[in-house]
Design a protein that fits this description.
alpha/beta, nine-stranded mixed beta sheet, six-stranded mixed beta sheet, 22 strands, binds fe (ii) ion
């Protein structure tokens, strides 16, 4: 048995992943355990959890992989960026991985942290107690980790690979191919030319938080007009035939690290950045729309180039920018790949999984077995609480609940949804990646015209424009949406089917007025441009969730419900039943489902 622990940490959204004999056994983000959003510290709690899932200790591990090379990152941070090479997608160094055993502080730190995971004070203490670590520590390349996370768990025997993010060590995007267990990176685009950083610059400028507010910009885009597209194209970037981009550094200041944009940028777009939390105006909406249009164009250009270069039928995507589901939807529709697969933990958390799989397949040369679906287990790779643990927790705290048999539960929850109730659903293993996929979700009736504002204002406590996503039974997706493909990870956007739409005279409406209009039979999940960010639900991957939606369909004729992550604004998604109960009581949610236990808000004594 070979056990490998993959780790990503110290930048944004730390995570760990355990791979045993090539199987992904467990993976989670540290923020879920520490309750610190995007926690970047060493993922001690997650490592502990992953090991416990397989009943291992850190000493039992054979390999520990770190998702990038801190030494190279350090090198980039030291450099001055004024004289960067103007090269585009340059030819990439080697097709063979460069495994490093670094002599920096990292190995010591990892040893000490993993000793702590085993309950020791530190590595030295562990040694004194006769517990020596035998495992080998390896460091992957940042984009190689992303690429591995995109290809190895994918359902394809062979595929082209495209990774796009802000920046790793030097690379900001890479392309390559995967065949069997071989992964070859062909070319890379280098800092400071970066689609991710360009998007983040606009995230910053529109007054949202870089590295987490990108979703808000994407959500705001449909309310605006693409007014600034030409200004961006004429001044900020050059899009090249080889898929690469070149950013004009006169407008950015991320190299200096203090702000994303500078005075020249402000001048071009007519003023300073919006102050966070201040009123969102039409200008921010227009900026959001413009940068979204540019991002889609750049991504399409990159994907077309990858297709031209590799001539492969399938495409795998990862890196933070691959979470831009609107752009992904266009890649699927407009670039001649037969199918695309996107790593659900496309951001840096997924690097933990990538490096662990890269050690198994690339370093150890173990074959890859593709059998039907992908290897992500629906991304349900986190902790699950047993019925007994939940019952104990409920009883010890004197909380009022109803207990149902497993067969009764879908009907009970389906009935609540049909009656317009908002339900917190906590069941099964927690999702790995930024999306809740029916195990740590808040769900509601997608047909209700009030559901979007109720959920935004009374439950999530966030901006009213933020759209909600639908979960739809896989069998019915093409009746309700212009999509007939799997989208299990909510990473594809498609339009509501014409037959389910209600046409609206858009000319009369501007900005957020667009929000109040009913556009389809499922208004709670229909965006102002008739699009929706879809999760297809299959019975095999998440049986209880599928049965709940089916029970709702039997009562209403509608196989679509609203699914939003189980958290409030600014908090990580819930992990434990305690987190879920706390969140349930803080909001105006009507019911909480903890596995077989159903709690109604009315019967809770506050
Ligand atoms: Fe990354």
């Amino acid at each position: 048995m070979v056990s490998i622990l993959g780790i990503s940490a110290f930048y944004h959204d730390s995570a760990a992943c355990l791979v045993i004999d090539g199987e992904i056994v467990a993976a989670a983000q540290e923020e879920r355990f520490t309750r610190i959003k995007h926690d970047h510290h060493f993922p001690l709690h997650t490592a502990r959890y992953c090991l416990s899932e397989a009943k291992l200790t850190a000493r039992d591990l054979d390999f520990v992989g770190f998702y990038d090379k801190p030494l190279l990152k350090f090198d980039r941070l030291l450099e001055t960026y004024l004289d960067y090479a103007p090269a585009g997608f340059g030819s990439f160094l080697k097709s063979m991985p460069l495994w490093m055993s670094e002599k920096l502080w990292m190995p010591d730190l990892i040893r000490t942290e993993l000793a702590r995971a085993d309950g020791e004070d530190d590595d030295r203490q562990a040694k004194k107690n006769g517990k020596k670590f035998e495992w080998k520590l390896l460091f992957g390349d940042h984009h190689e980790s992303h690429a591995a996370s995109a290809f190895y768990p994918s359902p394809f025997e062979e595929a082209a690979i495209l990774t796009i993010d802000g920046v790793g060590e030097w690379a900001t995007s890479s392309i390559g191919t995967g065949k069997g267990n071989e992964l070859t990176l062909l070319q890379e685009l280098r800092y400071p030319n970066s689609v991710g950083l360009l998007y983040s610059a606009f995230t910053y400028y529109t007054g949202f938080k870089v590295n987490s507010g990108e979703y808000k910009v994407m959500g705001l885009a449909p309310y605006g007009e693409p007014k600034y597209v030409n200004a961006i194209k004429d001044n900020l970037l050059e899009v090249r035939d080889d898929g690469s981009i070149k950013l004009n550094q006169d407008y950015f200041s991320y190299s200096q690290g203090l702000r994303m944009t500078n005075g020249t940028f402000d001048k071009l777009f007519g003023g300073p950045p919006r102050k966070p939390e201040s009123q969102i105006t039409q200008r921010e909406m227009d900026l959001a729309r413009s940068i979204q249009v540019i991002t889609e164009e750049v991504m399409l250009n990159m994907a077309r180039y990858v297709h031209r270069e590799t001539r492969m039928k399938h495409l795998c995507l990862a890196g933070g920018v691959a979470l831009n589901c609107v752009a992904n939807g266009r890649v699927l529709k407009e670039v001649p790949f037969d199918e695309i697969w996107i790593q659900p933990a496309a951001g840096d958390a997924g690097g933990a999984l990538g490096v662990a799989l890269a050690i198994w397949h690339r370093y150890l040369g173990k074959p890859r077995v593709v059998s039907g679906g992908d290897a992500m287990k629906g991304s349900y790779l986190g902790p699950r609480d047993s019925e007994a643990e939940i019952e104990k927790y409920l009883n010890e705290n004197g909380l009022a609940y109803m207990k149902y048999a497993r067969e009764e539960l879908p009907g009970v929850v389906g009935e609540l949804l049909a009656a317009g109730k908002v339900v917190g659903l906590h069941q099964g293993r927690m999702e790995f990646g930024p999306r809740a996929l029916g195990c740590r979700s808040i769900i509601g009736d997608a047909r209700s015209p009030q559901m979007q504002s109720v959920m935004n204002l009374k439950i999530k406590y966030r901006e009213s424009f933020r759209p909600f996503a639908p979960s739809v039974l896989r069998e019915h997706v093409s009746e309700w949406f212009e999509l007939d493909a799997d989208s299990p990870y909510m990473l594809l956007v498609a339009e509501v089917a014409p037959g389910k739409r209600i046409e609206v005279d858009e000319q009369q409406l501007t900005g957020l007025e667009k929000l109040k209009v009913k556009r389809s039979e499922i208004p709670a999940v229909t965006h102002v441009d008739y699009s929706a960010r879809i999760q297809t639900v299959s019975r095999e991957t998440n049986p209880l969730y599928w049965e709940i939606i089916e029970a709702f369909r039997q009562r209403t004729g509608c196989p679509v419900i609203v699914n939003t992550s189980f958290n409030v604004r600014g908090e990580p998604i819930v992990c434990t039943p305690q987190d879920s109960y706390r969140c349930f009581m803080r909001t105006e949610m009507d019911y909480l489902v903890l596995e077989n236990f159903v709690l109604s808000k009315d019967s809770q004594s506050v």
